[in-house]
Amino acid sequence: MEINEVGTSSGTLFAPISIGDFLKAHEKNNPSEDTKEYRAASEQAVQTKKSGAVCSQCGSPIWAVGTATVGWNGCFTCITGEADCSEDYEIDSVCF
Description:
three-stranded mixed beta sheet, alpha+beta, 4 helices
């Protein structure tokens, strides 16, 4: 399977993943977490990014995966403190 990567404003690349595959992996790795609640947060974060939301800290486009996890509109760097997202996922429908 070929992975097409998408860039961030810092020039690094996410690995795209479908929301279904991401949620399956998240559920497997976080069995005690409320799956329905996280699914709703993930779907909301995707819609929020599609509507043009930006990071509340720096104004860059939000990272939907991270926003769903932390509960606030944030970009990869502001959420993680890192610049290299090459080993991290973003939902494929909002990789732009």
